[in-house]
Known about the structure:
This protein is 73% helix and 0% strand. The chain contains 15 helices and no strands.
Amino acid sequence: MPRLFPRATDHRPAAPRTAIPRDVWVLVAAAFAIAIGFGLVAPVLPQFAASFGVGATAASVIVSAFALTRLVLAPSAGGLVNRLGERPVYVIGVLTVAVFTGACAFAGSYWQLLLFRGLAGIGSTMFTISASGLIVRLAPPEARGRVSGLYASSFLLGNIAGPLVGGLLAGLGLRVPFLVYAGTLVVAASIVGIMLGRGRTAEVRTALPPLRLPEALSVTPYRAALVSNFANGWATFGIRMALVPLFAAAVLHAAPAVAGLALALFALGTAGALTFSGRLVDTWGRRPLALAGLGIAAVGTALMGVSGSDGVLFLLSVVAGFGSGLLSPALQATVADVIGRERSGGAPLAVFQMVSDVGSIVGPLLAGLLADSVGYVWAFAASGTCLLLAMPAWTGRRNRSSARKADPSRMLENEDGREPHG
Length: 422
């Protein structure tokens, strides 16, 4: 006869929540310092370029030069990570950005500014790929989603706080933010160089066997993450920064502050999703959150072109940002699953970064052509469609044998993307 009231022994205590290692918090603190500095420079960089008497196109080239350098040199940075290890490459990369960002403050011409900004991109790709490798290595497998969400949140909060601090420096001239940014980069390099590996977490090792790119590409989730990151770079990083301000001015006839508020609300939507999406990635799996993020971001992006008022644009910005906040931890955790903790993933991480950079460069160009030829409605619709087209990549069955080969810890055996426990 079944018992109406179960015994106390029938209920076992839930497994304790996995603690985030100290070294991960070190990386999070460094990421926040870097992001604050970037937030200081980003708003003034085009104006500083224009101060040398160049037009809007040349001023925009200064912005894209950084991303182009990152794209071109990402494979080399991945090779450095495999040979030297993540921590040395991280510190060298951050200090490289610090040196050339500080040099920007003393640029005497447009071409000097372009050179220094492009050289800073070398360091950026070094520390970005090495930071991703460190996160893969240090994050407990059952908490990869939470760690990815936490790391993304630190960058997001820094990018929000940076312009606020920059407002206090506005009266000191356009060159001062570059010097302050260089200072924050030195702080970030010091945090990682001095504190990383000194806690109770395992020491970051070098000379791990590398995960070759063909091995990673043989795993279905990795391919899905690449396709999704390209679409995310196209819509989230490219269209948001390039097309939304133009749309607000040309179609809504709004003041520049409206575009700025729309971008801030996008970040707010992302931050709201990141407060819980990392936990859901660990409990529900990678694929459900990736699909939800792609779908929600696609709707928010595609409908921006039919916004008839500032309020509708603001609402859709929040929606698109919320979708991005669901997607980002799922992609990062998926790549971490494929690489595992016992392999060096320089090449797969470099390609993962590169596809986002390609999307952020190609997306605005094609969307700009559509906006000029057939209108903003089609430009935003095409960007939303790009996100939707990434969704089928997550629906195929996983190659289990390839997953086990790529990740010795067999973290991809479950079809939903969650790790097996017990």
